Amino acid sequence: MVLTFDELRQIKHSLPTGSIAKIAQQLNIEEQTVRNFFGGDHYKDGKTADLHLQPGPGGGVVTIEDTRILELAREILASHS
Fold it and tell me: Which of 38, 54, 63, 64 sits in a 20 to 30 Å window from 73, CA-based?
């Protein structure tokens, strides 16, 4: 999946309070891993994440190989609309 870094950040900022913890719990990962994902950090649990940044407009282009965090975030947003 490809989107801009700004789009990724907008999704994070639109999530209701407690969503980071909920996503982490559902995926059985650390909350910091979820925060890092939305911050464009390249590391997940001390290893390189499935997230690649390329410079460009809109904060650059983000290519996401493992979309589970993003999918759960979008589900949360859809349920709060």
Answer: 54
* 16: Cβ contacts below 8 Å, ≥ 6 apart: 76, 80
Cα–Cα dist 13/56, whole Å:
21
The strand pair at 51-54 and 47-48 is best described as unpaired
Domain limits, the chain: 2-79
List the Cα angle 40/43/44 in 5-degree steps: 105
6: tokens are: 């700004």
The predicted-structure confidence for 17-64, as pLDDT tens digits, reads as follows 999 999 999 999 988 888 888 875 554 555 445 666 788 887 888 888
pTM higher than 0.85: no
